[in-house]
Amino acid sequence: MTKLEKKELMWGLFFTFPWLLGLIIFTAYPIIMSLYYSFTDYNIVQEPLWIGLDNYRRLIRLDPIFWKSLGNTFYMLCLGLPLSLIAGLLLALLLNTNVKGMAIHRTIFYLPSILPEVATAILWVWLFNPYYGLVNVILSWFGIQGPGWLADPAWAKPAIILMGLWGVGGGMIIYLASLQDVPKELYEAAELDGARGWQKMVNITLPMISPVIFFNLIMGIIGTFQFSVQTFVATGGGPAYSTMFYGLYLYYNAFQWWKMGYASAMAWILFLITLALTILVFKTSARWVYYHSESR
Amino acid sequence: MKENWRKTLRRRAIIKEVGLQALLILLGFTFLLPFLWLISTSLKSNEQIFTSPPVWIPNPVVWSNYKKALEYFPFFRFLKNTLYITAFNVIAAILAPSFVAYGFARIKWPGRDILFLILLSTMMIPSQVTMIPVFVMFKKIGWVGTFKPLIVPAFFGGGAFSIFLMRQFFMTIPQELVDAAKVDGCSHPYIYWNIMLPLSKPAIATLGVFAFIGSWRDFLGPLIYLQDERQYTLAIGLRYFLTQHGAEWAYLMAASTVVSIPMIVAFFLAQKTFIQGITFTGIKG
Fold first, then answer.
1. Which of B20, B23, B31 to mutate against chain A (most A CBs within 10 Å)?
2. End-to-end CA distance of chain B
3. Residue B59 burial class via C-beta count within 10 angstroms: exposed 0-12, middle 13-18, buried 19 and up
4. Do the Cβ atoms of A66 and A266 come closer than 8 Å?
5. CA–CA separation, B72 vs B255, rounded Å?
6. Chain A, 48-107: which have a CB under 8 Å from a chain B CB?
7. Which element (helix H / strand E) includes A49?
8. Min distance A245 CA to chain B CA atoms (Å)
9. Residues of B with CB below 8 A from A31's CB?
10. Is the peptide bond before A18 cis (omega within 30 degrees of 0)?
């Protein structure tokens, strides 16, 4: 190593030092400790007690709510996530046209997604009120008697999905940014070849933005397993555990019941599930994600 | 012949414009409805909240709901706490990511690319895996029940996403500028401070806005770490309000509106930076 190279290495480490330190304190060490805690009985007050695989055994064999929460989360994964991905994409496509007043349109669709989630959760509890809530009032105009929504185990999850769709602007804006990046020449060339609207969509737009669809899908999978503020505030997991999602149940175990070992085991099961799903998506991505030939 | 064809084309364009406009207005109105309902409810008297069919324009308009809502919970104390935490997070977001990103973007050193890959992969680690041990750590050093766990971590690079965003931005600055400075004998700290930072104001502004919004909205952090009611932020204060006065919808809506307003203001003030910032991230491909 030459003197200059040594100097550059020193400066490189100097600038990245804060992050490296953070990586050790807030990521590497906690990951190891979390694996360790998952094999212990630990309530924070007493020292962790090694119990081997007991937490995992109890979760899988003896905890019906664990399975319930997993099932609820997969429901969201199979229904809520695709809906919000598609809705975000469709909105972005609509907002990528040059209709008058586009700035206002974009703002209207984007704003709900940056409001504090507590505020939107409280608002939706009110909107979903079975008797005086706006949702059922509007349904009644069409002669439909609306369900109890958040108060009805059969309708609570669809209600949560609807709430989520109102905040679809976050994903939409990422699609929109990538749509504006698709080179105009591609469309012009296709038009010369006589391509129609939907042909341009299938052969140019979708392939060009497929990396972003991929990104949103992966982040969506991880996000579905996270603690959901809206669910916590709006239902707290009820009624009858119908909205007890994985992240929420983990939170209760860890920070309400102080079952840190048990919650850590849940965290590791979650880690493995999301990892498996991510790898699965990555594996299939070669078939549907198009990467530009020149890499940055 | 040619004239006719042109006319057809123009007619088609107009039909498309009108159709799209109608669709967007209809959808937009649907998206606005919850908002309008929020504002409308927040200004209603108690009788008008529970009438059916519902009243859209409150009569009388009860402005005092806002005054009462802010008296119902210690709004100004919660506001002070929120601003305190938010301010530090914004400062961290301005300083830390650009510093670390410089090391990834503008210095060549062995191990850099592997570490950058690690940085990217940390974004995929679900937060639950690290959340519990980090809590235990803060508990052991006596920081649980203080603002420190909500502030200090932001200074350690400010999060993988922010570093990534800054690095992408630094990559767009011409290398010749840096090379020229190096020839003149400038050190890396000098180049970082005097060349890169002044050119990166838009990206840094974006991070500042993101940090403001993220910190203001943050719920789980304060929920876990703040134990004394007097330390609450507005986000968890609002939930506290809900648990205490769950059925007083006018006040709840008024309080929710007040807590939401800074987000709306931040968005309008920084609208341009915002959209740009999202474009910078380079996740587009």
1. B31
2. 45
3. exposed
4. yes
5. 9
6. 91, 94-95, 97, 99-101, 105, 107
7. strand A49-50
8. 13
9. 125, 129-130, 133
10. no
Phi, psi at residue A268, to the nearest 5°? -75, -35
DSSP A97: S
Q: Is A93 exposed, middle or buried (0-12, 13-18, 19+ CB in 10 A)?
A: middle
B-chain residue closest to A9, CA distance: B109
Q: Which residues of A touch B223 (CB under 8 A)?
A: 255
Residues of chain A with C-beta less than 8 angstroms from the C-beta of B242:
122, 125, 233
Do A51 and A39 touch, CB atoms closer than 8 A? yes
Per-residue confidence of chain B (285 residues) as pLDDT tens digits? 567 778 888 888 888 888 888 999 999 999 999 999 999 888 988 888 887 778 888 888 888 889 988 888 889 999 999 999 999 999 999 999 999 999 999 888 998 999 999 998 898 889 999 999 999 999 999 999 999 999 999 999 888 888 998 898 888 888 888 888 888 888 889 999 988 998 888 888 888 888 999 999 999 999 999 989 899 999 999 998 888 887 788 888 999 999 999 998 888 887 776 666 565 554 433
Instruction: For residues B258 and A233, give the distance between their C-alpha atoms in angstroms, rounded to a whole number.
Output: 18
The string of DSSP letters for A209-241 reads HHHHHHHHHHHHHHHHTS--HHHHHHTTT-STT
The token pair at B233 is: 């932020």
ipTM value? 0.89
Nearest to A246 by CA among A281, A222, A275: A222
Q: What DSSP assignment string belongs to B208-223?
A: HHHHHHHHHH--HHHH
Contact B28 A31 (CB under 8 A): no
CA–CA gap between residue A267 and residue A262 (Å, rounded): 9
Is the Cβ of A229 closer than 8 Å to some Cβ of chain B? yes
Contact B21 A99 (CB under 8 A): yes
- A-chain residues within 8 Å CB-CB of B134? 26, 30
In this complex, do A227 and B128 lie within 8 Å of one another by their Cβ atoms?
Answer: yes
- Per CB-CB distance under 8 Å, the chain B contacts of A251 are 220
